[in-house]
Structure formats: C-alpha cells, structure tokens
Design brief:
CATH architecture: Sandwich
Bound molecules: copper (II) ion
Shape: elongated
Helix content: under 10%
CATH topology: Immunoglobulin-like
Number of strands: 9
Order of helices and strands: HEEEEEEEEE
C-alpha cells in the first residue's frame, strides 16, 4: 500500500470533524471513514442523491447505519444505509430530493473486529 504523507493529518481532521467516538479498547482494526462523497463540510451547488462513505476496515451490514437529516431533524435519506454488493468497506444511502440547507450525515458501524465507531458531519447545499 502506498503511503501518503498527508494522510495522518487528513485523518485527524476527519476525525475531529466527524466527532468519532470509540467504545472498547483501542485496536487497529476499528473502522474509520477514509473519505466520502460529498466530502465532510462540502458546499454543493447541486443536491446529491447519494451519500457514500469509504471505511478503512470491513464493516458488518446488519449493524452499520447511515442516515441523513436536515438541520431541523427531518430524515432525508431512504432507509438506514446499505453496503453495496461485493463491498465490505463502503456504506451508502440514497437521498430524497433536497433543497438548499445544511444536512447532517450520521453514521454508526461495527467493524469486523466487533468494535463500534460512529460520527456525524455535515454538508451544505447552496
Ligand atoms: Cu477495533
């Protein structure tokens, strides 16, 4: 695997922005987000119809959730998120059509090692 020098800094920023909480003892195989579309804090001209998060470790389908809410708490995502067939590290959700505003992406996953991580971040539609 190629080493990217800026990766630790980016990961730390992502963790701070996502408000990741850990339960249990620290272990290397916890699943953390590596990137997402939209990205954390994105300002978008066009409303997305899909939110995708890539994790750095395998996640359990039954216990992994991804929900998007408006600032007022209205759920704008369809279902509770899904892991695309053939993937173990991608969590996705489709969105209802949304207008301008701030939207919160709330995720919670159980990694293959049984450890739980969760976080929350936002994007903005202009
Ligand atoms: Cu772990």
């Amino acid at each position: 695997m190629k080493r990217d020098r800026s990766r630790p800094a980016r990961m730390m920023l992502a963790l701070l922005l996502s408000g990741v909480f850990l339960t249990g003892s620290p272990a290397l195989a916890h699943a953390f987000p590596e990137r997402s579309i939209p990205h954390v804090g994105a300002r978008l001209k066009v409303a997305p119809r899909l939110v995708t998060i890539w994790f750095d470790a395998g996640i359990e389908p039954v216990f992994s959730h991804l929900i998007v809410r408006s600032r007022k708490g209205r759920k704008v995502s369809i279902g509770n998120g899904f892991i695309p067939k053939g993937s173990h590290t991608i969590l996705e959700t489709r969105l209802h059509p949304i207008g301008p505003g701030v939207y919160f992406v709330v995720w919670s996953v159980i990694a293959f090692d049984g450890h739980h991580t969760e976080g929350r971040w936002y994007f903005r539609v202009r």
